UniProtKB/TrEMBL annotation:
Residues 107-325 form the Heat-inducible transcription repressor HrcA C-terminal domain. SUPFAM superfamilies: GAF domain-like (SSF55781), Winged helix' DNA-binding domain (SSF46785). It comes from the Bacteria. The gene is hrcA. Residues 38-64 form the HTH deoR-type domain. One of its GO terms (molecular function) is DNA-binding transcription factor activity. Gene3D superfamilies: 3.30.450.40, Heat-inducible transcription repressor hrca homolog, domain 3, Winged helix-like DNA-binding domain superfamily/Winged helix DNA-binding domain. It holds the Pfam family HrcA. The keyword Repressor applies. This is Heat-inducible transcription repressor HrcA. One of its GO terms (biological process) is negative regulation of DNA-templated transcription.
Length: 350
């Protein structure tokens, strides 16, 4: 018998322990493994293999029983040995396509995507809005809401839309349109960072000290919108799944829930994955910093490989169905990329 066979056999035992524990949340014993899995060896041999796996720090006994559960190192080896992420079924792919293709604008794409990931994985899900540092101003519109109040709307080349209410009292429609056209001539086509700076620089030139002119008011609003686009933000869904998994966290799930609420840790995590060469990253337990040190995360980026635009992923206990979560996150990321690029005109306001 070659020396590689025991290693492969023990890996099979580890995979069986991970699979059973994920399904049952109960420590797994050698007899249960022998009964439920076709490992081709006796319970005594499985016990010996489990002893070796425990010595290597891949499984552990949560209490004085015959059962064992995977450690963070065990989960890591399991994930690393997933040679290929199992693709979703045709029905699942069609469901994703139908659900996301129904989105009307960027906000709808983000909210649908994060809800979909949570439903597919039964974990908390997050998605980062496209990082707009490379986006430019595509359109500016001014809509009159009343005789004194108007709405300044700015659209970026990446499909984001935002608005600000402004006071433009006593102006006829031609005056408002002329001011809008001046703002368009100055800002449309500029990157967001340059557009914000150009808008602010132009405001003092519009007239003597005092209340700003119509074009000055529009430019101030446009600069504020440009600033808001350059601030990363997240959409979240499924935090209730974490709350229902309290038993899976050795100390407390509270730090994870707080991290989801504050979002700073999550944004840092997504910015780190965007710098990685891989399109999918799994971090387990202690591989995560701070409040996520007892959690597992599966994250990916969307956008072109050379220029990722944002990140998305799921967060849950280390007792996670990694294969299913990895497949769902990767599939949603690819569909978002397709929607934002192939169909980007469809999600922009007409």
């Amino acid at each position: 018998m070659s020396a590689s066979v025991p290693n492969e056999r023990r890996l099979a035992v580890l995979r069986a322990i991970v699979g059973d524990y994920v399904c049952t949340r109960e420590p797994v014993g050698s007899k249960a493994l022998a009964d439920r899995h076709h490992l081709g060896v006796s319970p005594a041999t499985i016990r010996n293999d489990m002893a070796v796996l425990e010595e290597e720090g891949l499984i552990t006994a949560p209490h004085t029983s015959a059962g064992r559960i995977p450690t963070d190192r065990g989960y890591r080896l399991f994930v690393d040995r997933i040679s290929e992420v199992k693709p979703l079924s045709a029905a699942e792919r069609n469901a994703i396509r139908t659900f996301l293709d129904g989105a009307e604008d960027l906000d709808d794409v983000m909210l649908r995507s994060v809800r979909l990931m949570s439903q597919l994985t039964q974990q908390a899900a997050m998605i980062q809005y496209p990082v707009s540092s490379a986006a430019s101003v595509q359109a500016i519109e001014v809509v009159e809401l009343s005789e004194t109040i108007s709405l300044v709307i700015l659209v970026t080349s990446s499909g984001q839309v935002s608005q600000r209410t402004v006071a433009l009292p006593g102006l006829a429609r031609p005056e408002v349109e002329a001011a809008r056209d001046s703002a368009r001539a100055l800002l449309v086509g500029l990157p967001l960072e340059s557009a914000g700076a150009s808008a602010r620089a132009a405001v003092p030139l519009e007239g003597p000290p005092g209340p700003p002119s119509a074009v000055g008011t529009i430019l101030v609003a446009a600069a504020e919108i440009c600033d808001s686009f350059r601030v990363s933000r997240l959409a979240m869904s499924g935090t209730a799944h974490l709350a229902r998994s309290r038993r899976d966290f050795a100390s407390s799930v509270t730090p994870v829930l707080e991290a989801l609420e504050e979002q700073v840790v999550l944004l840092r995590l997504l910015s780190e994955i965007s710098l990685e060469e891989r399109d999918l990253e799994v971090r387990i337990g202690s591989e995560n910093a701070g409040p996520l040190s007892e959690a597992a995360v599966v994250v990916a980026h969307y956008g072109s490989p050379d220029s990722p635009e944002g990140g998305l992923g799921v967060i849950g206990p280390t007792r996670m169905d990694y294969a299913a979560s990895m497949a769902a996150v990767r599939a949603v990321a690819r569909y978002i990329t397709r929607i934002l690029h192939s169909d980007e005109q469809r999600i922009l306001p007409q």
